[in-house]
Amino acid sequence: MEIAKFFSIEERERIEAIQQKLFSLAADVFQEGDEAKIRKYLKTAIEQGLLQRDAFGLNPIVKDLETALVVIQEIGLSRGSLLGVLLNSAVKSGAVSIDVIRRDFGGEVENILHGLMRIRELYTKSATVQGDNFRSLLVTFAEDMRVILIMIANRVCIMRQIKDTPNVDAQRQVAMEAAYLYAPLAHKLGLYKLKSELEDLSLKYLEHDAYYHIKEMLNETKRSRDAYIERFLKPIDEKLTAAGLHYHMKGRTKSIHSIWQKMQKQHVDVNGVYDLFAIRIILDSPPEREKMECWQVFSIITDMYQSNPKRMRDWLSVPKSNGYESLHITVLGPEQKWVEVQIRTERMDDIAEHGLAAHWRYKGVKSGQSGVEEWLAGVRSALEANDDAQLMDQFRMDLKEDEVFVFTPKGDIFKLPMGATVLDFAYHIHSKVGNQCVGARIGGKNVTIRQKLQSGDQVEILTNSNQTPKQDWLNIVTTTRARAKVRQSLKEMESRQALLAKEELDRKMKNKKLDYEEPVLMHTMTKLGYKIVTDFYAALADGKLDMNAVLEAYAQQQRFDHGEAEKTAPTQSADQFVMPDKELPLKGDGGADVLVIDQNLKGLDFQMAKCCQPVYGDEVFGFVTSGGGIKIHREDCPNAPQLRQRFGYRIVKAKWAGKRGSQYPITLRVIGNDDIGIINNITNIISKEEKILLRSISIDTADGLFNGTLTVMLDDTSRLQQLIKKLKTVKGVKNVSRN
Question: What's the pLDDT at 360?
Answer without folding.
Answer: 31
